Amino acid sequence: MTGMAEVLLAVGTRKGLFLSRWPVGQRAARGWEFTGPHFEAQAVYAFSIDRRGDGPPRLLAGADSAHWGPSVFHSDDLGATWKEPADPPIRYPRDTGTSLERVWQLQPGGESEPGVVYAGTEPGGLFRSVDGGESFELVRPLWEHPTRRDWAPGGGGLGLHTVLVDPRDARRVTVAVSTGGVYRTRDGGESWEAPGSGLPQGAHYGPVLRDALCTDDAEPAGIYFGNRNGEVYASADEGDSWQQLASHLPDVLCVRAAVLG
């Protein structure tokens, strides 16, 4: 397969990670073979392929060991070997009074920030790395947001499960918390705000699932999300204002959008 473009397919399961590589031109053929399980008997809830830079892509995996707990691993040789830092890469500061329960999301930053990686975790914390995912620090301004006191675990826990980085401006990041709502920053995480007018105010118990928030690639970017109350909201101005598109749908499990033509 040397010199031929390949697809790298990663599948995270409750019992490890499975990887497969196959030529792009032969994707319809039979014979895909998987290696693994990597992280045997560990649940893999988060995975990312960081293709920034000129070197080989870096693979990032959030694996959860029943004995050692959750951690983040990285590979620079397409999964042949994996590395875990000697010190836990994600650790809640002692003064927060909590500890890491799960890594839900691993998201590389923008092209202008080649070492930045975000990690969305449970219980509802966002972490930021500047060394490609080898160490992370808690994003304090979001953790200390005034609305946090209203966040409460839903049926699936209190997970910060979605991180969207604006491809045009890496300082603009939007996140979703399972029962905490949607928040955005325009200054690289120094300050955070809940979206603007058009959304329910005060306590509104509409959990947003991990695949129910997305953006399009228009200018300015559109943002869309749905919740388990069957409501769908959209913003055409990067979250400054919102409109409700639907209010009586079944539970919203996923939302995706694209500009066509």
TrEMBL record:
Gene3D superfamilies: YVTN repeat-like/Quinoprotein amine dehydrogenase
InterPro entries: WD40/YVTN_repeat-like_dom_sf, Xyloglucanase_GH74
UniProt GO BP: xyloglucan metabolic process
Domain of life per record: Bacteria
PANTHER family, A to Z: EXO-ALPHA-SIALIDASE, XYLOGLUCANASE (EUROFUNG)
Protein name: Exo-alpha-sialidase
Species name: Streptomyces cacaoi
